[in-house]
Every structure is written in structure tokens, then in C-alpha cells.
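cron nightly-structures :: item 1 of 1
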Amino acid sequence: MQTFNGSDTPGLRLADVRETGFLTRMNELFGAGVQSNGVHAAETVGWTAYTV
């Protein structure tokens, strides 16, 4: 995550990482009984790829 827009903490998850691509999911990190309202400001996610 390259930005932190809004008051909620953004989190990024990677899944299904393969040579041809990957899946991402952005979620808000909550604790102490705080719940998401399902809305979040736009964020910037950077990535890079290389071959070995």
C-alpha cells in the first residue's frame, strides 16, 4: 500500500500468486469492536514483477 487516504487503516492481501499473475484484495484493518461501513477512499497500490 503506497497511500493512506481517509481515516481507516488500509490493508492489502495477496493470493493465488503464480508466474502469470496474482490476485489482490484491499481491506480495512479493525479491532476493539470497530466495524467497517464498507466504504473506503481510493488508495494506490504499487507492484513489480521480474523473471528469474
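cron nightly-structures :: done
The mean pLDDT is 80.
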